[in-house]
Amino acid sequence: MTDGIGWAEAAALDLATAPLPAYGSGSLADLLPTLVAGQGVPGFTAAIPELTPADRNCVFLVDGLGWEQIRAHPDEAPFLTSLLPTSLGGTGRPLTAGFPATTATSLASVGTGTVPGAHGLLGYTVRDPATGALMNQLRWKPWTDPYAWQPHPTVFQAAHAAGVHTAQVSSPAFESTPLTKVALSGGTFRGKLAGEERIDLAVEQLAAGDRSLVYTYYSEVDSNGHRFGVDSDAWRGQVGYVDQLARRLAESLPPRSALYVTADHGMIDIPFDEESRIDFDEDWALRAGVALLGGEGRARHVYAVPGAAADVLAVWRDVLGERFWVAGRDEAIAAGWFGPEGAVDERTYGRIGDVVAAACDDVVVTASEREPHESVMVGMHGSMTPVEQLVPLLEVRS
């Protein structure tokens, strides 16, 4: 299922009911290749045929502001709401993030133009097959050679090499992070702390070339959603601020420009009760045979001790019932969760859990001892439900 139609029907353990991201035609991995193909950068094709080429392209990615969140908050986001009919080339449809619907995975998909199974940033935390340790791909701990972990060149690098003026405009804190290096590098990085200054600098960079590709990013919608929840006053305030930033950017576009406002994932609030928050660290059945617990609450990679993978899969399916899609590694790959057939190669295969569990209900598998900070978050994301998976592609042209 690749067009967002029928997502609400996916509510059973049958893996065939899991709504797949629109890899190859309408996912985050398809956005930059489509834009630079329209700018004449060799080696790329327009995977999203609904988009009209522009000489100057600006992508404004708002962390955590999914399609469903915009639709549910027209008062806080009147400008973005007014742009909903422009989404995905005027079709009024969303993009899909990719699986898991989490920041490290999505930013790598955006920047490299490749699906998760190819770039290999397959979740919040995954096992490093070389060391057997969990690797946090957002915070990059423990340290791992970034270019060995993710060797694909970025779309920004290809555009810059082809003579397109290319820039990333974000918080100065992100300039030298490993995630930026492997996912978003190429051209120039410009750092500004204040949102308005960041927007104005993005406009300046957009106008700096006859052909330009500019990426800018805002993170506080996501962080407030995690801490206080979607629809909290703090979260609503951030959405209103982003709405103002998007309007400021849209009203300042230089000639021959296209602005695309998108996100890396949506978010859902999870109640604080035992039915909604299943604690791995207190559930002996879920722990049995498990060597490492990776991923995050709504998209788990489960690594079994040698010889126990089949038993772990059976137990997780039994315990989680119809509230999660639970697949073995090869089942998840064959189902297309991480990309189309052939996307997962030997380099990334061992990073995927022996068991992969994706929530299809308002539920998470927490780990109160192993992940104390993450376990008390209000808003969460990662799975393939529409509230997490669907992201906007709102368009303004000058």
Report on this structure.
- The structure is a single chain.
- With 398 residues, the chain is an alpha/beta fold.
- It has 18 helices and 18 strands.
- The protein has a 6-stranded mixed beta sheet with strand order 6-5-7-1-8-18, sandwiched between helices.
- Strand 3 and strand 4 form a beta hairpin.
- The N terminus is likely disordered.
SSE diagram, text form:
Elements: H1 31-38, E1 56-62, H2 67-72, H3 78-82, H4 87-90, E2 95-96, H5 103-112, H6 116-119, E3 125-127, E4 134-136, H7 146-149, H8 155-161, E5 165-170, H9 178-183, E6 188-191, H10 195-206, E7 212-218, H11 220-228, H12 233-250, E8 257-262, E9 268-269, E10 277-279, H13 284-287, E11 290-296, E12 299-304, H14 309-320, E13 324-328, H15 329-335, H16 346-349, E14 355-359, E15 364-366, H17 372-375, E16 379-380, H18 386-389, E17 390-391, E18 394-397
Parallel strand pairs: 1-7, 1-8, 5-6, 5-7, 10-15
Antiparallel strand pairs: 2-17, 3-4, 8-18, 9-16, 11-12, 12-14, 13-14
Helix pairs in contact: 10-12, 11-12
Key descriptive features of the protein:
398 residues; 4-stranded antiparallel beta sheet; alpha/beta; disordered N terminus; 6-stranded mixed beta sheet; 32% helix
- Helix count? 18
Strand segment count? 18
Structural class: alpha/beta
Our measurement of the CA-to-CA distance between the termini, rounded to an integer number of angstroms, reads 34 Å
Morphology: globular
Radius of gyration: 20 Å
Beta strand %: 15-25%
Main sheet overview: 6 strands, mixed
Going across the major beta sheet, what is the strand order? 6-5-7-1-8-18
Fraction of helical residues? 25-40%
